[in-house]
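Margin note: ligand = dephospho coenzyme A.
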Amino acid sequence: MALTIGLTGGIASGKSTVANMLKEWNIPVVDADKIAREVVNVGEEAYVRIVETFGKDILQENGEIDRPKLGALIFQDEEKRKQLNAIVHPVVRKKMLDERDKILKKKPVVVLDIPLLFESNLTHFVDKIIVVYVDEAIQLERLMKRNGFSQEDALARIRSQMPLSEKKACADVVIDNNGTIDQTRQQLLAILSEWDVL
Ligand SMILES: CC(C)(COP(=O)(O)OP(=O)(O)OC[C@H]1O[C@@H](n2cnc3c(N)ncnc32)[C@H](O)[C@@H]1O)[C@@H](O)C(=O)NCCC(=O)NCCS
Ligand SMILES: Nc1ncnc2c1ncn2[C@@H]1O[C@H](COP(=O)(O)OP(=O)(O)OP(=O)(O)O)[C@@H](O)[C@H]1O
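Resulting structure:
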């Protein structure tokens, strides 16, 4: 029987780290962040609407969207974030579900890696939910390190999402990613074997 697993968590909680493990084991993963980047390529409908809404100031010289600049804008301002979400999310959702359907024609299981699974009310599209959890102090530290953000910028991003503790409470299963990568891999293996996926 077909199984759609939702993989979610908070910003920098370790979703991509877990998704990479799944891909190594040949489990197909649909990456919402990757699709969200593709749908705003120069000339795409969402690109045109973003430029109309936020102006040419958010573009690089070559015409592509300046992601750090747009990020700085929308993570400081909830109204602007809602405007961006309203442009990008419907297109991402459609592409993601198309990819899911294509994969499920050939494979019994697919994982949808969706950072905003709960915030965007997408839980009805998945059968099981894995939340990748970290304590906020570690999340902050990893986010600042990975993106070179100040503490203030990193906190603005964390605060723009549903608290990770709430997501944890809504999960079918939680991966605690406070420890080593290997400890995370062991937890994932146990979940997959329990669900007969490996
Ligand atoms: C604001 C943008 C340009 C910043 O780009 P940047 O390359 O710096 O970050 P990236 O796209 O890799 O996202 C990193 C993480 O930020 C978080 N995040 C991104 N967008 C949002 C949002 N609208 N609300 C809350 N968190 C978000 C997610 O945890 C995501 O995994 C970009 O994130 C964007 O276009 N966001 C809107 C689309 C979106 O919601 N994407 C996320 C899920 S589909
Ligand atoms: N167990 C771990 N130990 C040490 N570092 C880790 C661990 N897990 C992830 N990291 C590092 O933390 C950072 C965030 O992890 P990752 O990119 O997987 O998170 P994410 O949830 O996909 O983030 P985003 O929502 O921003 O896409 C990365 O730099 C990653 O290498």
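The longest strand covers residues 3-9.
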